[in-house]
Specification:
The protein has 149 residues and is mostly helical. Helix 3 packs across helix 4 and helix 3 packs antiparallel against helix 5.
């Protein structure tokens, strides 16, 4: 049942235009979402987006396009992490730190929970709080387990 659900998900991503890879020689291909989705590109697709096989790090253990086929914990929403006790300077440092790392639109999507916050950005946000001297625990509104597409 799980394998069938995953196959349906891979086919859905292939039809959505997810960037795929076909590098059979890559040492990471067996656990790479891009390679797995690439196996489900429909033959009816005249064109699709694919990783450049000539890029220097593709098909190596350092491939920047590699996406592991394991779910990770994403944070969802940042509304509840800012409270009345928090100095405005801390709130501003976090806001502008996230905007500098991504962009203004993404910041508001992260804050409102309409865009999931990947683990690396969660840690960056926690570091922004620490850098401003905030020692209280930093919790996001909720968490979701999903693939890091």
């Amino acid at each position: 049942m799980i394998k069938m659900m995953k196959t349906e998900l891979l086919m859905k991503k292939a039809n959505e235009g997810y960037i795929v890879c076909h590098e059979q020689q890559c040492p990471l291909h067996e656990h790479c979402l891009r390679w797995q989705v690439g196996q489900h590109v429909p033959s009816s697709a005249c064109t699709y987006s694919c990783v450049n096989p000539n890029y220097q790090h593709v098909a190596t253990s350092d491939c920047p396009m590699y996406r592991k086929d394991e779910k990770v914990r994403f944070a969802k929403g940042m509304k509840n992490m800012f409270n009345d006790d928090m100095p405005k300077s801390v709130q501003d440092a976090v806001k502008y730190g996230v905007i500098n790392k991504s962009n203004r639109t993404y910041y508001y999507e992260y804050k409102n929970g309409s865009r999931l916050i990947p683990p690396s950005l969660q840690e960056h946000i926690r570091q922004l709080f620490r850098d401003k001297g905030w020692t209280a625990k930093v919790d996001f509104d909720s968490y979701v387990d999903d693939y890091n597409w």
